[in-house]
Design goal:
This protein has 419 residues and is an alpha+beta fold. 40% of the residues lie in helices and 23% in strands. Among the domains are: 100 residues, ATPase, nucleotide binding domain (Nucleotidyltransferase, domain 5, 2-Layer Sandwich); 123 residues, no CATH class. The protein is globular and about 70 Å long.
Length: 419
């Protein structure tokens, strides 16, 4: 019986992997799918909690309740120690993360015959950029949540290292690979020496030539695209009647940030926005903002932006339609607009690749292959930025939502010997 697993607890999606004599495999968690949205829905109708795909369905079916997404982004932040209100109950964010991990553990147990007791959880190179204290706190918070979820033995592995372990299963000669793991909340890069022979070793520390990361990912691209396209129609940078003043910008930045949307539904915030409406020189825009907040449609709005972003990975034009139940807006968004919106983030990603090369003491032409994982690597502009940093390397697309979990499963099998 396999009682050890690897969990890729992602900002946008999560997966569970196990490893046996046949090698690593992902477990179907929900509806036969191995990758599930990292989302929860607290129903106001029956006080139940839904997870993953069920959470999305109940939210978009307009069932009364509270929807939460991108909860991983709260780890290590000042928001983690706050609580969020669901009807009359206050929930700590650690409790919410533990509930989601318990959902994954229970679903895995249904496939394995018993819930796994040991786990290797993936973590980004940095939960929090340039703050080692907050980064260490984030790992402690995640470990505490995993223990509350029922895991007894808990270890961590860097997500890009886990992806490298998965990539190594398919190489037939030694090479130096750059693993680019660009997920929902972070971009992580590792340079790893891989080979079929090295894959059999239990100690790979000498093969990790360098790794680094930055807190940029798909949810940041959602925010940047939303601020550039949708938020002006809701009043971003719209003038007030008092000369020289604009509507407060923080409403729009929070509305464009997945894990901050829920804070805007506070009655005190709604009262403030009504005051802005009375003073607005463009009240029709602020009325849209107020309608979105009063009806709790912030996540639906940002989901529309996310869908347009995804469509622009394969098309030059996407039409964003937000009907009257959300914001009553129709916008055509071009790939060029997306690329302009995310340009600064792509520069920071390119800088981190240069940094990991410096750490490893390597020149770009020393890299044989780039292994791409994480949903955001599907964006053409992301791939182009990575390719420009290591122009002679082959670009290899891994399982966008499964490579990390598979590598974590390999790691778990070695650490815990599946006892």
């Amino acid at each position: 019986m396999t009682l050890a697993c690897g969990i890729d607890f992602g900002t946008s999606n999560s997966a569970v992997g196990v490893c046996d004599a046949a090698g690593p495999r992902l477990l179907p968690i929900q509806r036969g799918a191995a990758s599930v949205p990292t989302a929860l829905f607290f129903s106001f109708d029956d006080d139940s909690t839904a997870f993953g795909h069920d959470a999305l369905d109940r939210y978009f079916a307009r069932e009364p309740g509270r929807y939460l997404r991108a909860i991983k982004s709260l780890l290590g932040s000042e928001l983690f120690d706050q609580t969020t209100r669901v009807k009359l109950k206050q929930y700590a964010f650690g409790e919410i993360i533990a509930a989601f991990l318990r959902f994954l553990r229970t679903a895995a147990g249904e496939r394995l015959g018993a819930p796994p007791r040991s786990v290797v959880i993936g973590r980004p190179a940095f939960f929090v950029d340039d703050d080692p204290t907050a980064d260490a706190a984030a790992e402690r918070q995640l470990e505490a949540a995993a223990r509350t979820a029922g895991f007894e033995r808990i270890a961590f592995q860097f997500e890009p290292i886990a992806a490298a372990l998965d990539y190594e299963q398919r190489v037939n000669a030694e090479e130096i690979a750059l693993v680019a793991d660009i997920g929902g909340g972070t971009s992580d890069f590792s340079l790893v020496r891989v080979s079929p022979e090295r894959a059999r070793s239990s100690d790979r520390r000498g093969d990790i030539l360098g790794f680094t990361g930055v807190h940029i990912g798909g949810t940041d691209f959602d925010r940047q695209l939303a601020l550039a396209t949708v938020m002006p129609a809701l009043g971003l940078r719209s003038p007030l009647r008092r000369r020289g003043l604009d509507a407060p910008s923080w409403y729009f930045f929070d509305l464009a940030t997945w894990h901050r949307i829920g804070f805007l539904y506070d009655p005190k915030v709604l009262t403030q926005v009504r005051g802005v409406l009375r003073d607005s020189a463009e009240p029709e825009k602020i009325e849209r903002l107020l309608r979105v907040l009063e009806q709790g449609k912030g996540h639906a709005l940002l989901a529309g932006v996310e869908a347009a972003k995804i469509e622009l990975s394969s098309a030059d034009l996407a039409t964003l339609r937000l009907d009257g139940s959300v914001a009553d807006i129709t916008l055509d968004i071009t790939r060029a607009q997306l690329e302009t919106a995310v340009a600064e983030s792509l520069q920071r990603i390119r800088a981190r690749i240069n940094e990991v090369l410096r750490i490893a003491g390597l020149t770009p032409d020393a890299v044989s292959a780039v292994f791409l994982t994480g949903g955001a690597t599907r964006m053409p502009s992301v791939r182009e930025s990575i390719a420009a940093a290591v122009p002679t390397a082959r670009l290899i697309a891994g399982d966008a939502f499964g490579s990390v979990a598979a590598g974590l499963a390999l790691d778990a099998a070695k650490r815990f010997a599946q006892r």
